Amino acid sequence: MGLAREIEKRWPDAQIYQSSLAEAEGGEALLLRLRGKGLLAVSGRLRVQFEGEDRETIRLCPTSRANRLALNRAFPYTAPKALGSKAATFGFGDRLGYANPMQLASLEGTGFLPVLAQQSMRELSLMGRSYGQVIDTASWAAFRQGWKLGFAADGDHLKTLDEVQAALDAGCTMITLDCSLALGTPPDDEPDRGHWPEDYLQSKAAKELDLNFDDALLWQLEQTYSGALKLARDVAQKAIHPAGREIDFELSVDETEDVTSAQAHFYIIHELRRSGVELCSLAPRFVGEFQKAVDYMGDLRELRAQMRAHARLADHFGHKLSLHSASEKFSVFSIFAEETKGRCHVKTSGTSWLEAVECIAKVSPCLFRDMFSKALASLNQAKQLYAVQCAPDRIPAPDKLNDSELPTLMELAQSDFRQLMHITYGFILADEDLNERICTFMEEHRSLYEAEALDLYRRHMAVIGR
Ligand code: ZN
């Protein structure tokens, strides 16, 4: 008898994830939920690789770190890997740890590969989680969905060599180096400008790409980027290359006020190449506003022209163009996909949290109101971490709304409220009472959340997926 049949017979109330069923090394394994707990069931000789309790021929195993590592060995598709510069990739965040399975489901048939475990240091410290835990969640999700195409784990918006090293030690396969702290720091030693004429002023490649350089521009680029380039070289030479495995290295200059010109893009890539550093992707700062939780604000025609110029450079050098803060940027997706011809990386993050807030608004008005009050009380502090316009005087007072009106606060048009809830998640979850009630809510309403999250991500994919 197969493992699934045996479980159905023995525990009729178990919820079996049929898509997880897999065979390896003389046994079967699958994921199930039994009395509110996720468990791995294993049969045959495969059992010895996992720790758990035996019920006759079946071993029931907790979804622990040790069992996740054993799962990675027995079923390599459950371990994160580098995805490379050819694949179209979509980055998701899953702060609460409930969204990964539906994020995978939403990608089916789209041509995108997932970056499933993706957290910044800011998110991890606000959530009290570690990279290891985030990768655990992603591995179990890949197993549950039977997702065999692979996924990456992104140490997102890392700012120092130490942060990069910690992410690599935990098993991240992608590094997003955020250079914002190093931008505008002039070179500390006398820079070498001897290659300027050949590499820029009279460069054939630059000419073919319609890029003009002169001394003044190069001097300015040097002032702006030399600190960032030094950091990128350090990270590549001291952490990424010594890791001895494939790592997708993304450089992000998006979190700054200065729009990245095509010349700057060319300069960054060229200077890195001179020192043997290859990027997998570059996230420029595009024109307009990419604020959290709301659609793009800016001139779409200007944005398209800029994306076209950057995509041309990415094609020329062979790396991917990356778009950050992409959740809810419905008006931008098709432009970005068209201009990059689908060879791109798209990064979203907080939208899975907002979906949880929306579910709570629909089902648990009392909890929602308490979260709302906490969010308002923490807004000023949160605004120091995230650059948003969010104005509290444009948000309706919670006691002016009746319960049935609460979900309307989550509509896209309510940008102030959405941003409020987006940026205060750390404060809300740091409150012990709220944290416990939110976790209980998520456990009890897992299927509602999954249905809503799947719908949300499918709406994103419908605009950008192939
Ligand atoms: Zn970014």
Quick rundown:
This protein is of the alpha/beta class and 466 residues long.
Structure description:
This protein has 466 residues and is of the alpha/beta class. It has 2 domains: 3-74, no CATH class; 78-351, TIM Barrel. Helices cover 46% and strands 15% of the residues. The protein has 18 helices and 13 strands. It has helices at residues 3-10, 65-74, 100-107, 121-127, 131-145, 161-169, 196-201, 204-208, 215-240, 262-274, 300-317, 330-339, 351-363, 365-382, 415-423, 425-430, 432-444, 446-464; strands at 15-24, 27-34, 37-43, 53-55, 58-62, 89-91, 113-120, 152-158, 174-178, 248-252, 281-283, 320-323, 344-347. The strands form 2 sheets. It has an 8-stranded parallel barrel with strand order 6-7-8-9-10-11-12-13, surrounded by 6 helices. The longest helix is centred in the middle third of the chain and has 26 residues, at 215-240. It is globular. The structure holds zinc ion. The site of zinc ion (ZN) has 6 residues, from loops.
